[in-house]
Amino acid sequence: MSSQPKSFQLSPELHNYLLDHGTPPDEVQQGLIEATAALGGISVMQIAPEQGALMTMLTQLIGAKRAIEVGTFTGYSALAIARGLPEDGQLICCDVSDEWTKVGEPFWEKAGVRDRIDLRIAPALETLAAIDEADAFDLAFIDADKTNYANYVEELARLVRPGGLILVDNVLWGGNVIDRNESSEDTLAIRAFNAKVAADERFDTVMLPIADGLTFLRVR
Ligand SMILES: C[S@@+](CC[C@H](N)C(=O)[O-])C[C@H]1O[C@@H](n2cnc3c(N)ncnc32)[C@H](O)[C@@H]1O
Fold first, then answer.
1. Nearest Cα residue to atom 6 of ligand 1
2. Which residue out of 33, 34, 55, 73 has the highest number of ligand 1 atoms within 8 Å of its CB and is therefore the one to mutate?
3. Per-residue confidence of the chain (220 residues) as pLDDT tens digits?
4. What are the pocket residues of ligand 1 if the criterion is a CB atom closer than 6 Å to any ligand atom?
5. Of all atoms in ligand 1, which is nearest to the CA of residue 101?
6. Closest ligand 1 atom, CA of 78?
7. Which domains does the chain carry?
8. 129 Cα–ligand 1 center, Å
9. Does the predicted model carry a pTM greater than 0.90?
10. Which one-letter DSSP state was computed for residue 212?
């Protein structure tokens, strides 16, 4: 299959090798990759297929029944999580864009998981603050505006049960986190976020170098 240059810290050859030795995207996922690519450069926001496969497996492994996603875009990560849920599972998806999430909805339908997904179009902090169910969720995924990552974790620490998992995307930020010449607002936010959660005693924290960096926060 063609290379998706998303696990950026691997050579293209090793990245291809990795893709060739895991479960490849199926027809529905491939269709969503293509529909997203047709949007142009913005398609880089989509998570890597190998990350999607990992997220489906994690959802299954922890036996997640209820999940929340912050940052849905065209729905690849939502599809990955929803597929790992049982038939009566629920995934609340938070995004501000009707336009982008509409691209994904037909693919959720095709995959037979549309009825597991509760899409809420509003600033995610508002959506999360309005959920009044402490410890009710098993899994969360954060992949929206980087400057709000710390705020999202505060809300999700309330909503995700002890033993549950919060996944955080783009924590390596293309390597910018260790580039002293990089001081964009997003880079500073991610650096500060990474330092904060590493010292946060509410979580066991593991940062994985898959794709653009994925942090696991296991709620203690
Ligand atoms: C990197 S993309 C998410 C990619 C997605 N996880 C995927 O697999 O394709 C970030 C998304 O966050 C959304 N977003 C940005 N700021 C937001 C906010 N304040 N509240 C909710 N969503 C937001 C954007 O509309 C965009 O769709």
1. 72
2. 73
3. 344 446 778 999 999 999 999 999 999 999 999 999 999 999 999 999 999 999 999 999 999 999 999 999 999 999 999 999 999 999 999 999 999 999 999 999 999 999 999 999 999 999 999 999 999 999 999 999 999 999 999 999 999 999 999 999 999 999 999 999 999 999 999 999 999 999 999 999 999 999 999 999 999 9
4. 45-47, 71-74, 76-77, 94-97, 100, 123-124, 143-145
5. 27
6. 8
7. 12-219 (3.40.50.150)
8. 17
9. yes
10. T
As to burial, measured by CB atoms within 10 angstroms (0-12 exposed, 13-18 middle, 19+ buried), residue 62 is: middle
Alpha helices in the chain (DSSP H): 12-20, 27-37, 49-61, 76-84, 98-110, 124-129, 149-159, 185-198
Tokens describing residue 85: 């849920």
